[in-house]
Amino acid sequence: MSIVINRVYTKVGDRGTSRLAGGQEVDKDSLRLEAYGTLDELNAVMGVLVDRFGPQDDAVMKRALVRIQNELFDVGGELAVLPEDRHPAQITISPADVARLEEEIDRVNADLPVLRSFILPGGGAVATAMHVARTVCRRAERRLVTLHRAEPQRSEVLIYVNRLSDWLFVMGRKAAKDAGIGELMWRPGDRG
Length: 192
Prior knowledge:
The protein is mainly alpha-helical and 192 residues long. It contains 5 helices and 4 strands, in the order ββαααβααβ. A hairpin with a 5-residue loop joins strand 1 and strand 2. The N and C termini lie far apart (56 Å).
């Protein structure tokens, strides 16, 4: 796929609209733009997360995060095109992408202590950034569900984003463990 970006501004947005990749002009607050705009925000938060990694942090996890950033661009690209305008060779999220997230979740979760309470976001710079990404991912999922109700999307997209938030949760737990900080457990009513 060859992409050439030679103009950053088009002035279409000056009227409160934007163009989909198929050329259709839509309102900037349309459900579709809200959905892929929130995925773009998630991708930016993931970039901040990746930059939190130091030489002592898990290099495999860092590479997985960069892979996921690329996958998020693929999802955004799919949402930026109406189904009838999608090119047959366009890269889309597949069941294999979901299965890879699940395998990584299961492998990492097997080495974590069983949770007996909810955890408070924290556990070091990487773990905390992972939790921020998780919450943005959940918001992106809510935007996708709203879009899906109005304009049905492929189920793989919804499943992938749902599984990604689980992935971020488990990797946040692992990052806290790796940092030697551990997790802060929610203690109902604790004001102290």
